[in-house]
Design goal:
Blueprint (H helix, E strand, L loop, with lengths): L31 H11 L20 H10 L4 E11 L7 H8 L13 H4 L4 E11 L3 E8 L2 E8 L2 E6 L4 E6 L32 H8 L7 E11 L2 E10 L6 E9 L5 E8 L7 E9 L17 E4 L37 E3 L6 E5 L14 H10 E6 L2 E7 L4 E5 L3 E5 L3 H10 L2
């Protein structure tokens, strides 16, 4: 193992580049209960995990150099298998996931092949993904299920979702607004700030998660190199990110970075409370060869029900089918700014202890039990914890990472922070 005995903190970091996304869903389309589920699912977009299977002997490298290596990586062609393990402490969402997700995006088209219908399913349990990319205009992610498969294909301006279980197809168009040429959407070589940046695509790979985690590098964060590992048969360095602030639920994030290409191969988020990783995402097999062109071809199968989503090509970067992949604007990004969200959205605090706050305008708090009805009522009851303070009364919905306080007068406070921190923020807002 290479000798990494000294702490080597990165003073700043930019966002590594990734292939272009489609559009991002607007928060205003989420009902309050669906927002809570979305917040839990969104943790997948900011965290990841590391499990090593060897300690290769690699040249010493500093944390800043390793961050720069990630930022400089220009790999746009790859294929492989990714394993996602998520333990947010949520109950089994079962059919509730599809019920909430189906109306959350895409204009509420209700197709089981709508990408939004799959988001909350990834918030619990273990999943295997097959992924492939060939430049900015061709990506494919397949979620392998028991005797079934869900595929999301981006090929040029077309975006297809196909659910083999229901034989349903969802079709919409990608957003070309603001798309930059390959290699242009990177931070500067010094790791500071952003370069030109276009849309990006959530491909389900560790790199997507690293981009969020690396936004944390700054004065509220310790970034170190902690030895080496072997992931999917490739030698890698281990980059460890730890918050310096109190009040956050995040313990540490580990990122395995391919020594040859600079591509993140595996991630781990461990909570401050200890125990198993909250999210573990990593390649089990990877190739950086050009995928076959046929990988990205798609024709709706005979007899499939095809749902056409709204044409998003001219609606701007914030309102397409795939951008961000998950509602990340509900979460304050450590060291960064939240995306566009509900009107009046503000961020209280900074770094890892930042809390996003907004007013839904919905009075009367969150319905529970028989008021909500069915599976949704049981789900809310399993997460909800009644609290009170100077702000009045409300309900805290908790996971092992992200907590959200919804007050009885319709205000929402959410972040990767403790319940007490949310109550304090609500009290201060009165």
């Amino acid at each position: 193992m290479a000798p990494f005995g000294t702490e080597d903190r990165a003073t700043a970091a930019g966002e590594p580049a990734g292939p272009p996304h489609g559009g991002r869903r607007k928060v205003a389309r989420y009902a309050v209960p669906a927002t809570v589920v979305g917040v839990a699912a969104a943790t997948i977009g900011i965290v990841p995990a590391l499990a090593s299977s060897g300690d290769p002997d690699l040249p010493a490298i500093s944390a800043q150099q390793l961050i720069e290596k990630i930022a400089a990586s220009d790999v746009q062609q790859f294929s492989g298998t990714v394993r996602v393990n998520t333990d947010l402490g949520l109950p089994d969402l079962g059919g509730l996931a599809g019920g909430l997700g189906g109306g959350a995006a895409g204009g509420g088209d209700g197709s089981s092949a709508d990408p939004s219908a799959k988001v909350t399913e990834l918030a619990t349990g273990s999943h295997t993904l097959r992924v492939a990319a060939d430049g900015p205009d061709r990506q494919k992610v397949s979620v392998l299920e028991d005797a079934a498969e869900y595929s999301l294909i981006h090929h040029g301006k077309d975006v297809w979702g196909y659910d083999s279980k229901s034989n349903e197809v969802f079709h919409t168009t990608a957003d070309d607004a603001g798309r930059s040429a390959p290699g242009k959407d990177k931070p500067g070589k010094d790791g500071h700030g952003k370069g030109e940046r276009g849309a990006e695509t959530f491909t389900g790979t560790p790199k997507d998660f690293a981009e969020q985690a690396l936004k944390a590098a700054g004065p509220t964060t310790s970034v170190t190199v902690d030895g080496t590992a072997q992931v999917a048969g490739r030698d890698a360095y281990k980059l460890v990110i730890k918050p310096k602030q109190s009040g956050t639920t995040v313990g540490a994030i580990s990122i395995a970075v391919d020594a040859g290409t600079g591509v993140p191969l595996k991630f781990t988020l461990t909570p401050k409370s200890g125990g198993a990783a909250v999210v573990d995402v990593g390649f089990t097999q990877v190739s950086f060869a050009k995928p076959a062109a046929s990988t990205f071809d798609f024709t709706p199968p005979k007899g499939a029900k095809v749902t056409e989503g709204k044409d998003r090509a001219h609606q701007g970067k914030e309102d397409g089918p795939l951008k961000g992949g998950l509602p990340e604007h509900l979460l304050p990004t450590p060291g960064g700014e939240p995306g566009k969200g509900p009107e009046g959205l503000k961020v209280i605090g900074e770094g890892w202890s930042a809390i996003a706050a907004f007013d839904t305008g919905a009075k009367g708090g969150v319905p529970s039990g028989s008021e909500a009805g069915g599976d949704l009522g049981g789900f809310l009851d399993s997460l909800g914890d009644k609290v009170s303070g100077k702000f009045g009364k409300g309900t805290v919905f908790s996971t092992r990472l992200v907590n959200a306080l919804i007050t009885d007068d319709g205000k929402v406070y959410v972040g990767a922070v403790t319940k007490d921190a949310l109550v304090e923020a609500a009290d201060a807002g009165k």
